[in-house]
Design brief:
This protein is mainly β. The protein is built from 4 helices and 39 strands. 5% of the residues lie in helices and 31% in strands. Strands 28, 29, 30, 31, 32, 33, 34, 36 and 39 form a 9-stranded antiparallel β-sheet that branches. A hairpin with a 5-residue loop joins strand 24 and strand 25. The protein starts with a strand and ends with a strand.
Length: 576
């Protein structure tokens, strides 16, 4: 650093101070007070000798002191902080500062203020401006840290520090997508991940923090979640949305769905399918139908039902697998039934099984064609209480409770009465004994109608009759049965239940007595009894608490010719 000259005027001290410091100012033209004489009695003579005995040459050389020593402006070194003092051409002191200090006497430290230096190595002695820095603030480089660190030629998004001498990056504040490392010189890798492309990774470790694409079957920011078929119609998932995980490619669809993500419902459009079970994932074309339109069969319902090998005049539906007729549009002469395989119907139950499920009058031939009894018409109850019930009698609503045919119940049930097309509350109707016994059946139902409305509370079924309930006799009969249930086959009683019938005269209905009155007042009755066969005296009446109501004091029976205010109700008896 260039030395600074210290002039005589700069070192204007009192004589005592000068004397004490040993500094001698040269130059006769420089008195301390402006006079030729010195203060306090000291003087410089014309020859330059000081009044205290020391002398300084006019040319600034050192004069010897009274004790023989010499002195000058640097003798007591006015420069601070280790600075070097030297004399200028006029004998003044010049200070040369060591690095880190500034000022005429080097008494001020160099400052980083207003710079990007971390510390200042050296600065201009006059101005204090740094000429070399001992290090730069983050983001700067150069001798005086005046240059900004640059990302040019790197994969850094920002630069934290760079080499002071050449600006080469030493630490990045972040990396461009796809790079990591202290200086972002390493490429993010898919290794150990389900990523096919990595957008960004942790700068310190390289661990993926965002993937641009995933391997098939994975999704998520770092592709660490497996695609799932949950809540979808996919059987398996090949790929799914990177963000949501919603399938974008399925390996197969649940039955009834198709499409790349199985979001479409298989359609019957353009097919003979009534319902489609499965379809081609790509096209949606049916590959399996769960049911066919009438007249078609096959896996995809492309084959037409055929009358070949049947007695059908046309086939309305057939088995989807085999093509065998399930229902015919008509039968060849001499054949009946849903599939025209029968030559006759034996009962309403038979008709019901063959698809005739509407209430109405049908023809049956219980013993078959050319086997004795001719076919006859019956009324079938097909729409309630399970269907398949054949009506064997309809007793009209009348307070006298007599029927239009016969003189007693025996004749009414033996000879028959009326027609199955006339069974209103004012009609009497019964099959003949021969017709009745020709019909196969197990159970019997007794149903009452009050003012034309079915009395379901008192209607009941007799289970397991096993024989004709109305035999051709005037005597009292008792038939043990399997039990009795309400009209819909529930709430059953199967303990000591009997069916009692008398074709003429009557038994006391309230007690189910086994004997006949022998009187001609009432000409027959029937009903349920409990222990009625033996009449052991243990209250054989079938009580109301045993399932059914009392119906005005006459438990489950309708007397022939009962008067005295008996309730007028219509009663029908069916078998099945």
């Amino acid at each position: 650093m260039a030395p600074v000259m210290i002039s005589a005027s700069f070192l204007r001290f009192s004589p005592l101070l000068l004397a004490a410091s040993g500094l001698v100012l040269f130059g006769a033209g420089c008195p301390t007070d402006g006079n030729s004489d010195t203060d306090a009695g000291s003087q410089v003579d014309s020859g330059g000798d000081a009044g205290d005995g020391s002398t300084t040459d006019e040319d600034g050389g050192n004069d010897a002191s009274a004790d023989g020593s010499t002195s000058n402006a640097c003798t007591n070194n006015p420069c601070a902080n280790g600075a070097t003092c030297s004399l200028d051409g006029t004998g003044g002191a010049l200070c040369a500062c060591v690095n880190g200090y500034t000022g005429a006497l080097c008494d001020s430290p160099c400052s980083t203020t207003g710079t990007h230096c971390a510390s200042v190595g050296a600065c201009d002695q006059s101005t204090g401006s740094p000429v070399s820095c001992g290090g730069c603030e983050a983001g700067y480089h150069g001798a005086t840290c005046e240059s900004t660190c640059s990302t040019d030629g790197t994969e850094c998004s920002t630069v934290t520090t760079c080499a002071q001498n050449d600006g080469s990056v030493t630490a990045c504040g972040g990396c461009n997508l796809g790079y990591f490392g202290t200086t972002c010189d390493s490429t993010c890798s898919t290794s150990g991940t389900h990523c096919t492309s990595v957008g960004s990774c942790a700068q310190s470790t390289g661990a993926a923090t965002e993937c641009l694409a995933c391997e098939d079957g994975y999704y998520g920011t770092t592709c660490d979640s497996a695609c799932s078929s949950t809540n979808t119609h996919c059987e398996g998932v090949d790929s799914c949305d990177l963000v949501t995980g919603v399938p974008t490619q399925c390996t197969g669809c649940d039955d009834g769905f198709y499409g790349i993500s199985c979001a479409n419902t298989c359609s019957t459009s353009g097919t003979n399918c009534d319902a489609v079970g499965a379809c081609d994932q790509a096209t949606g074309h049916a590959t399996a139908c769960t049911a066919c339109d009438d007249g078609y069969y096959g896996d995809t319902c492309t084959s037409s039902c055929s009358t070949t090998g049947t007695h059908c005049t046309s086939v309305t539906s057939c088995d989807q697998g085999t093509g065998d007729a399930l229902s015919c549009g008509g039968c060849d002469s001499g054949f009946v039934g849903k599939t025209c395989t029968k030559t006759h119907f034996t009962s309403c139950k038979d008709l019901y099984a063959e698809g005739h499920t509407t209430d109405g009058v049908y023809e049956i031939d219980p013993d078959g064609p050319s086997n004795g009894a001719e076919p006859f018409s019956v009324f079938c109850l097909q729409e309630s209480h399970g269907g398949g019930w054949t009506l064997i009698s309809n007793r009209r609503a009348d307070n006298t409770n007599t029927e239009a045919c016969g003189t007693n119940l025996r004749e009414f049930f033996k000879n028959g009465c009326g027609a199955p097309t006339a069974i209103t509350a004012s009609d009497s109707y019964a099959l003949t004994l021969a017709q009745r016994v020709s019909i196969p059946f197990d159970d019997m139902a007794v149903v009452q109608y009050l003012a034309g409305v079915e009395d379901t509370d008192d209607a009941y079924i007799v289970l397991g009759m096993g024989t004709d309930p109305f035999p051709d006799t005037n005597a009292s009969t008792n038939t043990a049965v399997d039990g009795t249930c309400d009209i819909d086959g529930a709430n059953c009683d199967t303990t000591d239940v009997y069916w009692k019938y008398i074709g003429d005269y009557w038994f006391h209905s309230a007690q189910c007595l086994s004997g006949s009155s022998g009187a001609a007042t009432y000409r027959g009755n029937y009903g349920l009894c409990d222990d009625g066969a033996d009449n052991l005296g243990d209250s054989p009446v079938y009580p109301a608490s045993r399932l059914y109501g009392d119906r005005n004091g006459y438990a489950e029976t309708k007397l022939w010719g009962h008067t005295n205010g008996a309730q007028a109700y219509q009663e029908r008896i069916f078998v099945r």
